[in-house]
Amino acid sequence: MSTQETGLPPTWEVRHSNSKNLPYYFNASTKESRWEPPPGTDPEKIKTYMALHHSTAANPSSYSMGHSDKDGKIRAAHLLVKHRDSRRPSSWKEPEITRSKEEALGILRGYEKRIRGGELSLGDLATSESDCSSARKKGDLGFFGHGDMQKEFEQAAFALKPGEVSGVVNTASGVHLIERYVNSRKLDGDHRFRP
User: Fold this and answer.
1) By three-state DSSP, how is residue 3 classified?
2) CB 158 within 8 A of CB 108
3) How far apart are CA 166 and CA 77, in angstroms?
4) 173 catalytic, yes or no?
5) Beta strands in 68-184 (DSSP E)
6) Tens-place pLDDT, residues 76-114
7) pLDDT digits (tens, 9 = 90+) for 104-126
8) Selected catalytic residue, list 91, 173, 184, 191
9) What is the pTM of this model?
10) Catalytic residue (one of 132, 133, 134, 191)
11) In the predicted model, is pLDDT for residue 59 greater than 60?
């Protein structure tokens, strides 16, 4: 991996966290590590590099299938668009996010239109467009229960019927679309769900 390929500044590289099963950025000189690209990263190059080398389909077998709606946990995916007023205005593809909240909403509504029109699934769009590191897992957040997520996110996710995609959800992290999984499993190749 070269800095020309990744768009990272010299001495920075992409590594993989075994504990989180996600890539992160590491400076070999200073030993600094971070989840978001360092300042000076070329946003287009890192976005392309990460999509090619660090995106994987959500793997249902990587989660315990013992969880279900009965034990109070659900499984969902999301697509996050951050803006300059987000609590951390940076992401795996952009070291500094400068768009306004209105611009973020416009972008997310465009994604929502494509999802509802059947052009792409939320997971497929999340892989390249989500500002959350869960993009590498098609937006899959795994199982979570009450109190595990920000209040607005949790309320929206738990209010969804299995297989349903939310409208725009605002949190301190940015603006989201959320998809609740059916019976906690993906069932067919185009990432639509059935009971």
Assistant:
1) helix
2) no
3) 11
4) yes
5) 74-81, 140-144, 169-171, 174-180
6) 999 999 999 999 999 988 889 999 999 999 999 999 999
7) 999 999 999 999 999 999 999 99
8) 173
9) 0.66
10) 132
11) no
From the list 54, 73, 67, the residue with the least C-alpha distance to 146 is 73
Count CB atoms within 10 A of the CB of residue 171: 18
For residue 78, indicate whether it is catalytic.
Answer: yes
Whether residue 176 lies in the annotated active site: yes
- Residue 141 sits at φ, ψ, to 5 deg, of -100, 0
Dihedrals phi, psi of 135, to nearest 5 degrees: -55, -35
Indicate the domain borders of the chain. 3-53, 68-180
The CA distance from 58 to 123, in Å, is 8
Which CATH architecture fits 68-180?
Roll (3.10)
Q: Which one from 86, 133, 134, 176 is the annotated catalytic residue?
A: 176
- Give me 43's structure tokens: 């946003």
- The CATH T-level fold of domain 3-53 is Ubiquitin Ligase Nedd4; Chain: W; (2.20.70)
The answer to whether 97 and 82 have CB atoms below 8 angstroms apart is: yes
146 assigned to active site:
no
Look at the alpha carbons of 144, 150, 151, 155 in this order and tell me if their dihedral is positive or negative.
negative
For the record, the structure tokens of 140 come out as 């899959």
